[in-house]
Structures are given as structure tokens and as C-alpha cells.
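Quick one:
INPUT:
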């Protein structure tokens, strides 16, 4: 099932979304002085990458993710377990889930209460809308209408101690009616209530510039999806493509990045994919 279809269908039943409030976050990696090099941390996995293995063996899948060295997972999907059971699996493997993906409907109306109950059980902080309905994307007015919905949903969950964020694909960066829709969306949403999870593969595929985005919206990007692409646009494991990761992550403090989630939309072997990406990123000094 495609991610966008799943999220529309899952609604409030989807488990997901994010970690302890930022003031309680443990320190990860180095805290270098100005100009010093550091390694990216904490590294995590977006569980959409693991959708071919996670449903039949969530226990084994999470254990192997932790064994590779990852510290976090971004939740996606339903795996026949209660929030309490999932939290126990995370704790057993010393993993946290600082973020999770939802359909917008799960954060609106009567559905939001069930979503927040699950999020509290799991200790989450970030609730991320992973995509917008196709009809949103046909006009700038459509983007403005969904921005209004984002503001309302974000204010509601913010009162409960959670943070709303939006994950992009490439359509947001294709010019529409003389504007870039992502710009319109960001301008029409409250930057404190609606933060950005930037998918670095999709922004580049759509013709956008991650560094320019970080500079325009400093401090608004607490999370990124890290997945690589070749010069001709094929998705590959991180480090096997043409993206200049060192150049992008040199701006991580300006962006406000706290979490790095490795993702591959269709890996032939998901464990081999996240292993290769971890091997590259864990050695990358920035």
C-alpha cells in the first residue's frame, strides 16, 4: 500500500509521532565549538522503509534496527500491537520514536483524542502530516485551504503538549500559478505551530534547494528525511548517490535539525539498505 493511501485510510488508528519535549531531550553525539566537526546524531529510521518486514515481525525488526546502531525510529503503520506493547518493544531495544506520520484526518475533529492517547503512551512529541490530498495540489487556493486546516489542527495539539509538522514530497516545489506551493504553505502557517520535516530527496527532485529553504525558515526544520538519489533521479542508499550531504548538513544548526531519519521508499533488502546508510552517515563528519 502506498504511504499516501495508507495515511488516508488509517486515520486515528495509526500509531506514530515523536519524542520527549525538547527541554527533556538527552544529549547525543558531540557538542563541538564553533567551526569544529561533529557526527550526525541521533540517527533514526523511518519505518515506511521497513514495511515489507515490520508487519510480520515487529519485535525482530526493531531489534535489528537497534543492533545496527540506530537510536530512534519514526513511526508509520499498524502492526497488530497496542501502544503499550509497542512502547515496551521500543524500551526493550533502547529506541525512542520522536516522530510519527499521520493522515491529517487523524489530527482533526473527534479523531484527535485517540491519536493523542496513543502518542502519550509512546512518549511522542512530533505529529507529522505526511502528505496532502491530491485535490489540495491543483491550485494555490487549495494549498491555502490546507494551510488553514494545519493551523487549526496544530493549535489543538499544541495545547496538549505536542508539535505539528509537515513532510513534503516533490509536488510542493513545482511552480503553480506563478508561485512555489511550498512557499505559499509556509507563509500561510504559523511557524511556531507548524514546523517542517524536510524530505531532502523530494525537495531536490522537485527542483528546490534545501540550503535556501533552511536560510529562509531558520529554526523551523527540526527533522529531515535522509535518502539519496543518483544524478538521474534514482533513489539509492545514503552515500551511494550524488547528494552533497556534508554541504547540506553544514547548515543543520541554522535549520534547527534535531532528528535525522533514514528512508528508502522501495529497498530490495530493507535491512541491507539501512545498514549501508548507517555505515555512511555514522562516519560523516560535518
Amino acid at each position: 500500500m502506498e504511504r499516501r493511501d495508507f495515511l488516508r485510510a488509517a486515520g486515528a488508528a495509526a500509531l506514530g509521532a515523536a519524542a520527549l519535549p525538547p527541554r527533556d531531550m538527552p544529549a547525543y553525539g558531540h557538542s563541538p565549538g564553533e567551526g569544529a566537526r561533529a557526527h550526525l546524531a541521533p540517527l533514526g529510521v523511518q519505518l515506511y522503509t521497513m514495511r515489507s518486514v515490520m508487519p510480520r515481525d515487529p519485535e525482530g525488526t526493531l531489534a535489528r534496527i537497534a543492533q545496527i546502531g540506530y537510536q530512534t525510529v519514526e513511526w508509520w503503520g499498524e502492526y497488530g500491537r497496542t501502544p503499550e506493547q509497542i512502547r515496551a518493544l521500543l524500551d526493550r531495544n533502547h529506541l525512542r520514536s520522536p516522530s510519527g506520520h499521520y493522515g491529517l484526518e487523524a489530527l482533526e475533529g473527534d479523531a484527535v483524542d485517540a491519536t493523542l492517547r496513543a502518542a502519550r503512551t509512546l512518549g511522542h512529541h512530533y505529529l507529522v502530516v505526511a502528505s496532502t490530498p491530491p485535490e489540495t495540489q491543483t491550485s494555490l487556493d487549495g494549498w491555502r485551504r490546507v494551510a488553514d486546516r494545519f493551523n487549526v489542527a496544530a493549535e489543538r495539539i499544541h495545547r496538549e503538549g505536542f508539535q505539528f509538522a509537515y513532510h513534503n514530497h516533490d509536488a510542493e516545489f513545482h511552480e503553480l500559478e506563478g508561485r512555489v506551493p511550498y512557499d505559499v504553505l509556509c507563509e500561510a502557517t504559523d511557524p511556531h505551530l507548524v514546523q517542517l520535516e524536510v524530505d531532502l530527496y523530494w525537495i531536490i527532485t522537485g527542483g528546490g534547494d534545501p540550503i535556501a529553504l533552511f536560510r529562509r525558515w531558520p529554526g523551523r526544520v527540526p527533522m529531515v528525511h535522509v535518502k539519496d538519489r543518483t544524478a538521474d533521479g534514482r533513489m539509492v542508499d545514503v552515500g551511494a548517490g550524488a547528494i552533497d550531504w556534508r554541504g547540506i548538513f553544514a547548515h543543520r544548526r541554522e535549520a534547527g535539525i534535531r532528528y535525522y531519519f533514514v528512508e528508502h521508499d522501495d529497498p530490495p533488502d530493507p535491512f541491507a539498505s539501512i545498514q549501508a546508510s548507517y555505515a555512511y552517515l555514522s562516519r560523516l563528519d560535518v
